[in-house]
Amino acid sequence: MRTLISTAFVSLDGVVEAPGGEPGYRNSGWTVRLVDFLPEAYEIKGREQDEATALLLGRVSYEAFSPVWPDMAEFPRYRTMPKYVVSTTLAEDDLVTNWGETTILRSLDEVAALKETEGGPVIVHGSAALNRSLSDAGLIDRYHLLVFPLLLGAGKRLFSDADRDAQRLRLVEHEVYANGIQKNVFDVVR
């Protein structure tokens, strides 16, 4: 069984929207504009690339990342690893051709089936709506969170507001950096 890892830049109040500078959000680019850059705070991002064997994205994140990430020097392993996009509307013709093998999954049942295959970890980047659905369905096994010392108020949230039973997490790795970013790695307790 494969491990499904959700990785996110998140504000202290749970916002994940526009961390890299996407237009249309008033606090766009908050990870680079509002907190001093310290390379050591992002060590986990390189480790994720080394350890992941597949990338899972929602349609919106795929459409944002696919024109940019294939040519970025920071993401060389993501070029060749298999990618899965969860979407009911994306067509095969919508997929880029320069980013390696990409498979469209049409449901969370197909994500659950992917988890049952042989292989290493599958990592979810961005994809706020997908993350909420995966969490509500009990499909996420681990969270890699870089928590920024910011309160952003409005914005897309990483976690669902569904009324459900409490989900226990086990802290397996943590670190606090001089710029206030906290790395928290949690395993989901089943």
UniProtKB/TrEMBL annotation:
<dbReference type="InterPro" id="IPR002734">
    <property type="entry name" value="RibDG_C"/>
</dbReference>
<dbReference type="InterPro" id="IPR050765">
    <property type="entry name" value="Riboflavin_Biosynth_HTPR"/>
</dbReference>
<protein>
    <submittedName>
        <fullName>Dihydrofolate reductase family protein</fullName>
    </submittedName>
</protein>
<dbReference type="InterPro" id="IPR024072">
    <property type="entry name" value="DHFR-like_dom_sf"/>
</dbReference>
<dbReference type="Pfam" id="PF01872">
    <property type="entry name" value="RibD_C"/>
</dbReference>
<feature type="domain" description="Bacterial bifunctional deaminase-reductase C-terminal">
    <location>
        <begin position="2"/>
        <end position="182"/>
    </location>
</feature>
